[in-house]
Amino acid sequence: MSLWTLSLQERISILCCVAMVVGLLFSRGVLSIAMIIMLVNALHPEKIRDTWRLFVRSPFALCCIFFFLSYFISGLWSSNTDDWISAVQVKIPFLFLPFAILNAPFLTGG
Questions:
Q1: pTM of the complete model
Q2: Which of 1, 15, 34, 107 sits in a 20 to 30 Å window from 25, CA-based?
Q3: Please, what is the end-to-end C-alpha distance for the chain in angstroms?
Q4: HSE of 45, CA atoms in CB hemisphere, 13 A
């Protein structure tokens, strides 16, 4: 018997979405923790393959990757590496959050 069932995985995902909204309004720490838990939760062995397929086919996810890469690549020519690293750190969620959000049970109806 597995402790990390698909039902529990969906509940964790919903809880993380609520925590991210709360974090946007009140606490950056809550936001960061919710994003990390949501990403780890998206790596459920029974759903990771389907989520990966959705991610690769999602135009939004690809745009998020290109958005991050535009900041990352543009900084390679920058002489101000401190500001560049700060900008890249802020944009890192654009790499991982689309994958995690595609795993959330928004369209399953239950």
A1: 0.80
A2: 107
A3: 22
A4: 4
